[in-house]
Design brief:
The structure is a homodimer of 552-residue chains. Helix content of chain A is 36%, strand content 17%. Chain A is of the alpha/beta class and 552 residues long. In chain A, strands 5-4-3-2-1-14 form a six-stranded mixed sheet. A six-stranded mixed sheet of chain A has the order 6-7-8-9-12-13. In chain A, strands 17-16-15-18-19 form a five-stranded parallel sheet. In chain A, strand 3 and strand 4 form a beta hairpin. Chain A is elongated and about 85 Å long. At the A-B interface, helix 2, helix 5, helix 8 and helix 9 of A face helix 2, helix 5, helix 8 and helix 9 of B.
Chain lengths: 552, 552
């Protein structure tokens, strides 16, 4: 049996566009002799549709698209495609997260998702009733066990002090094995997480090996606001070896013979995952490109400070959107050093990006004048630093408004975590590119991007980080060294470790509590940050929900 | 059997404070001869604790507090109190949402929540495993059916085209009736919604009448960031009549005899709910007071524009925090009318609130000068309006930073819905007071607050709304009349009606689509708004999750 894996990039709610893209892939599969074509989870409507699932018209359009698809493709080619399905029962949630099997111009069979992830970024219990009846797909003499994404994750890889490996009370594959299938299909919408690629692959190869069955996994490739889906679909043989791998971070298409997946694979390189910086690079470029492309925007505005975060953001965005679509502003304050300007200019020249310079001193002085009667003889403090950051935000937004482009936010995860940033100032923007990248990874990524030659001037990478909002300011005046800070932040945010557990790792108790306090008390700032491209297992944003008002 | 209802206000994660408050209520109940004291759902840790539930230490502290409570109160007084409980099974979610029965210095019994709301603002499936075993509380010769909030909501009141009345597959009360209980207890954390008060009450009175049993409902009273819990706990007799009602929007305490709930109530006024504007007023004042109080802040900054939204916000905040804690700025632009300033000054005098005036013309001119070389001969447009709004935002935030108070956002729901506001300008602030109040309700609420004498100058209420950011600007230049707009917005947002359904109500198809488009395309702005005090059944914020990037 010839199975085509169609790894596509979808736009949520764009039924017309998605349908056209899907049809093209079915036609290609048909012409290449495929028996069956796989698409990813909820692909007809785009994943995650969120509360659009609560709109009657959205579900109708989705069902209509499935019907249209069934009627407009080669009736000999089977299609497995994800879409929401009405729950015919009068009790329970209104929808199932389902996979439709299309053949002969009609819907032949429907398979429903059993395990509904409801943690981190996932809210599937919000919309869907879980499946309770198990069925097999019998097609051209083969029996296929159809699963949807989380259905294979009944045993979660242990990750934190507090998470558990068995979140669910059942194992869909154990149920499906009763039908003695010849292979396992998994249609997924599985988002990227830079430290979980091996874990994810191990889930699939582990299941194939455990049941001694070939497994074909079809993921989507594309970014949906903050979520990046890396693609990387796979065909795995019954020994648990990766035989086919589709590209990361772009659409792809491949054909596999189910029968070939019964034999050993001699090429072990297929299962190799590119190194971490390469994956982060691919993810962020895709994230920027899809945010703009799917929003219908072409160009970005960005403020270059002379620091590494805005430099890296510019390099990534230039790659995603083209250097000609970048509108760069240099906004030096009276405290900015000459080298900040020179380094920034050098960077724009390296990239071929046009730039303008607007000094903010006069504006700052005008604000001081306007506020004089109120502030009288009060000492200058963080207020004046924030005013300068907000002047920059206002100038950048003016550019964005006037020329119709999107302001990119350049904050990194370390500073977002501890609140080292100004709301409505440097925390502004339509999209945060580095908000899930710790400062230490920012450095590593900058070096990675410079690997074939200097894009980011060396001086930007090596100089001590500073906001340059008061004389001789350095990040290290207010923050612990970044390597230390990032370790504690990752333990707290990603690993959800308790202070006691962190102390066991040798970190200073006072430092741990100081950092935790900074993170907690800045929840209110993060509530108002732009969406952040998610690359870790726990990003700020929709997957991390903490009370703003709490005493803990 | 004498049952005390302790309707308290909790701070999330403040185990020490919550415990002290709870103990005081138990002591009072003991001294007044109560057999049993009721507290609300997850009260020991505060509701909703959100992802704090994923922290080991948080659950330990909660369990310790329950143990401490059990050991430090009169051993003869029974206590029913909500807290998270570890799931002892190795499969399924790690926690139950439980009620602990304390007696004789120890935990005697635990009851678990069966129906876990996972829609709108609720995410309980994210954290909790549902109960599957039903038990009864036998105490002093009585059998009590213990339920937790949603457990009574197996039949949801029908509200939208797309929601259904039976979200769940079981009815906990039907199960519990097998034990032949003498009464029903419901410990809840049920948030306020101004059009759902009658519906909520009908759920409780309906259950009591249906099973011919008394029902005692204990809610929390207090605001948790955007969520406002109105209190209004009740004792309902077996005919479904409200016999006792605790106060709305504040802590309260009452004692009821279970036996008295078997007889008819002659006083029908107990079940009467105050009128809608009165309830909204109470909710918003509590919302502001608790946000500040629980955050540890005393004073607020606010920009008065001369319009009704900022005027109403000031009146509500003055009531919540005291007029002496308001720092008001008037920030006239060159387009501001004299009456805007005069009306604002009149309002501050009516309230006894001090104010300062900072004209923004010079700042605006300085921005124009700074941007001259970039904008060259381009026409002035919305960019220049936004610059003025952002100058105001920056000045207000400077005040907030310098004096350590919180900027209040003054946007209403109508403008937030259609994106009629400037991000980082008038959309700034730590808390949005009116972001869930439609403009037409803003007017009604202003009139309500003026009912005992003019607080808000009549001219502010009667003049046509304008942003005053360009000459002779009126809201009606860009927006349909507010009464029409609000009807369509409410149909779309709260009632989740499809355009077809709205057309059936007689609205113009073109207008419907124009408004829907405005709402949809401004999702990105709302992503970055402050938390909004929630008073409706569908507020912008955590309970409404739509993709920013979509084509639908």
């Amino acid at each position: 049996m010839k199975i085509a894996i169609a790894q596509l990039n979808y736009i949520i709610g764009d039924f017309k566009g998605n349908l056209a893209n899907i049809k093209r892939a079915v036609n290609r599969a048909s012409s290449e002799g495929a028996d069956l074509v796989l698409f990813s989870e909820l692909s007809i409507c785009g994943y995650p549709p969120l509360d659009l699932l609560e709109r009657k018209e959205f579900i109708s359009k989705s069902m209509d698209s499935i019907q249209t698809l069934a009627g407009s493709i080669d009736p000999e080619t089977g299609v497995l495609i994800g879409a929401p399905e009405y729950n015919p029962e009068s009790r329970g949630k209104l929808l199932f997260n389902s996979v439709f099997f299309l053949l002969g111009g009609e819907i032949r069979q429907v398979f429903r998702k059993t395990l509904l992830p409801t943690y981190d970024i996932f809210d599937e219990n919000r919309y869907f009733e879980p499946n309770k009846e198990f069925k097999i797909l019998e097609f051209r003499g083969k029996k296929l066990a159809i699963t949807i994404c989380e259905d294979l994750w009944d045993e979660q890889p242990f990750e934190s002090e507090f998470s558990r490996s068995r979140l669910y009370n059942s194992s869909p594959l154990d149920e499906l094995m009763k039908f003695k299938p010849d292979g396992i299909i998994n249609l997924a919408a599985s988002p990227f997480s830079h430290r979980k690629m091996e874990v994810k692959q191990a889930i699939f190869t582990g299941k194939a090996a455990r049941y001694s069955l070939p497994l074909i996994y079809c993921n989507q490739a594309g970014a949906q606001t903050e979520l990046i889906f890396e693609g990387g679909s796979m065909a795995i043989n019954s020994k648990g070896e990766v035989v086919n791998r589709l590209s990361f971070f772009c659409e792809d298409f491949d054909l596999v013979e189910l029968e070939d997946l019964a034999v050993s694979n001699t090429d072990t390189s297929t299962g190799k995952i590119p190194d971490r910086m390469g994956m982060i690079h691919g993810a962020l470029v895709l994230g920027v490109r899809d945010y703009f492309g799917k929003m219908g925007f072409k160009s970005a505005t960005l403020g270059l400070s002379g620091g590494i975060d805005s430099a890296l953001t510019l390099v990534l965005a230039s790659e995603a959107l083209g250097p000609e679509n970048m509108h760069v502003l240099l906004l030096p304050s009276q405290y900015s050093s000459d080298h900040s300007i020179n380094d920034s200019v050098q960077l724009t020249e390296n990239l071929g990006v046009p730039y303008d310079i607007i000094p903010i001193k006069d504006l700052f002085n005008q604000f001081r004048t306007s506020l004089q009667s109120l502030f009288k003889n009060l000492q200058e403090d963080i207020t004046e630093e924030n005013i300068q950051a907000r002047i920059r935000g206002t100038l950048l937004m003016a550019l964005s408004n006037k020329f119709g482009n999107i302001l990119l936010n350049t904050s990194n995860k370390s500073e977002t975590a501890v609140g080292y940033g100004t709301l409505y100032g440097d925390m502004s923007g339509g999209l945060s590119v580095l908000g899930d990248v710790y400062k230490t990874d920012v450095y590593d990524l900058a070096r990675y991007l410079n690997r074939k030659g200097e894009l980011i001037p060396e001086n930007i990478i090596t100089k001590p980080p500073s906001a340059e909002l008061r004389p001789d300011q350095k990040d290290s005046d207010s923050l612990p060294p970044y390597d230390l800070l990032d370790h504690i932040l990752e333990a707290y945010i990603e690993k959800q470790q308790s202070p006691a557990k962190m102390e066991e790792s040798g970190f200073d108790s006072k430092l741990i509590h100081r950092i935790i306090k900074m993170v907690d008390r800045n929840e209110y700032k993060r509530y108002q940050t732009p969406p952040i491209l998610r690359i870790s297992s726990k990003a700020f944003g929709v997957g991390r929900r903490l009370p703003l008002v709490a005493r803990y």
